[in-house]
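Justification of resources, computational component.

The compute hours requested in this renewal are based largely on the per-chain cost of generating structure records like the one below. Each record pairs the submitted sequence with a full structure-token output. That output is archived, and it is also reused by downstream analysis tasks.
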Amino acid sequence: MLHVVLSAARLSVGVMVLAVVAATAQGQAQAPASQPAEPEPGAPESRPASLPVGEPEPRRWLTLEELAAELGFEASYDRRRVRIDRENPFGIGYRQTTRDYRFEETLGLRGAGALVDERVAHFDFAARWGLSQERFSESRPVRDLREDPHGDVLEYDLNLNLLPRGRISADAFASRNDSRVPRAFLPSLDRSTERYGAELRYNDAVLPMRLSFEHLFDELTSRTRELSDDEERGTDKLEYEATWQINEFHSLRLNYQYEDRRERYSGGDYRFDTVRNYLTLDHALRFGPDHRSSWETVARFQDESGDLARDQAEVNTRLRLQHTDSLSSFYSAQYLREAYQDLKSDTWRGEAGLTHQLADTLTSTLQLYGLRQGADENPDYSEWGGLASAAYSKDNAWGRFSANLTYNRAATDFSDGDRYGTVLNESVTFRDPLNAYLYRTDVRRLSIVVTDVNRRRIYLPGKDYVVLPLGRYTALRRVPTGSIADRETVFVSYTYRLPVDRQIQRDRVDLRIQQDLKFGLTPYYAASFQFEDVDYAQRVPYLERDINRHRLGATYRRPRWSVGLEYEYNDDTTDPYQAAHFNADAVLLNNSWLQLDAKGDLSQFWFRGTGGLSERDSLLVDLGASARALLARDFEATGSAMYRYEDDSTYGITHGVDLTAGLQWRIGLFALSFELEYDVLSLSGSRDDGLSVWLKLKRDIPILATGAP
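The structure output for this chain reads:
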């Protein structure tokens, strides 16, 4: 109900703004066309004849700097075909074709100006109203469907800035925007976003403050309804921020956020509603000679209620001392309390380190750390370790040589076993055709929650990713038709079982050596070695994860193109493989009127198969090109093409194509925009392809002034 009232209020504001600016424009249009000539320099100021001498000139409460109308026409066509091959005695499959025709005629108004004076208030607005007609048709084996909906559209964007130069200033805004979201190898989406809010600022050099409120509602709708891509996400956010700038090197910052998130995800009736309170206090101090030493402390508190609520309390302090120009040390301490789905844990962590810089060639670091985690109704966990690293880089007769060497030693102790541990926000990156492995063993599959790195979207099992149990390890694999892209990094939270007490000691060495030759060739070698040693309280089998990975390759770079070749050998306990990679990119043309780029990647994987995985091989090819042409001064054409081919001996053959083209042409006050997209996703046993066309025409009509070129 509140949303309906707010929508009606915003619509009323838009109508009142249109009425005011139209009346003002009409009044200014009725003014005499001829204007008095500019006075000569030094001449006395002239006054209107109707004003007596000595009377002040009346104040203008509203000044319009720009006012223009526009007529618009948009048309689009979308056709999508879906084919699913079914293996059955009758050989019956499934075929479906969906067509979508859309027409839209609009009338818009935009302008900008000031209230009283530029120093008091400045505003700009844009509004558009029109009629839309659609025709949907769907042909399928059982029953064809057809409908012809129609309606009106209203879009607006209003911004108001009050007292921009004052000690106290404010901003207010309200907007609604319809846009298109193209997705590589997947159909595009239509997006509708509404946003409104206000911000109040206290501008002071010692104690600046800011108070803001923002409402955001985002809706995604697929042109092909069978994909079940519709979703809605809304957020109401209140934020207060104050910074006490004690002096140039000493500050204290307070930030408080209240957030109410309401989310319904695609693929079904999945809802996640959360209310969040978040408080942060930051303290920073720079001291010592030239203020090169620093002490920073962060205290934060988060309280959430609703779905997937997560509570956190943390205090983290870090001290860095610059002893000499080449030697520095650092010390840190942290306390963290977390509660997630009735699982609570307390973590204490301490760290100390030393960094030495030898000229500009060698940087050495030594670090020691220890942590202890205690959990209610969960196992306790402790870890201590150290890190030693060295980075060397120096010019030589052939170019520049660089090397990095890192040694990490960690000892982990799990006690009070036969319980469940908790992992929050473990970073995992999907890389086709590899499986993405979780760090812990014996993961509870039903406890896995996958989100994007901003925790703004929750990915769904079966639709966006699948879980693969491989012995005591757990792997994730993205679904090609889902919302997770190749090479995308996500956060994974889960619980895992500790059947017995155990201790793990881990040693890891990472090495990389490369030589940048002057003529553009860069050969390199990288290696990683990991060894685990596990002690048990009971005789229970546990797979120790040892890694023996080598990468040998070279990259050749020229000003307008580059090529690279790499051989990879990964003898991993969980999923060993060998691979060969080739990549290339080039700027084919680059001049004042045409730009053409191309790139390609090819990878061949050979998986040995172990720990429940079968032996397989996979070939992955990615090709892409993009172009931009300036055909005339106001005539521009763009285009892009992407193609993916994957041949996996277990998962079959995949073809993905995404082609886009566009034209933007401006002729005086006319603007033409044409876009075309064609995409294909062909999997083993199914095929999905679509064609979409957009056409937009716009005619500006200056009333008072116009920003058009």
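Helices lie at 2-29. The longest strand covers residues 62-84.
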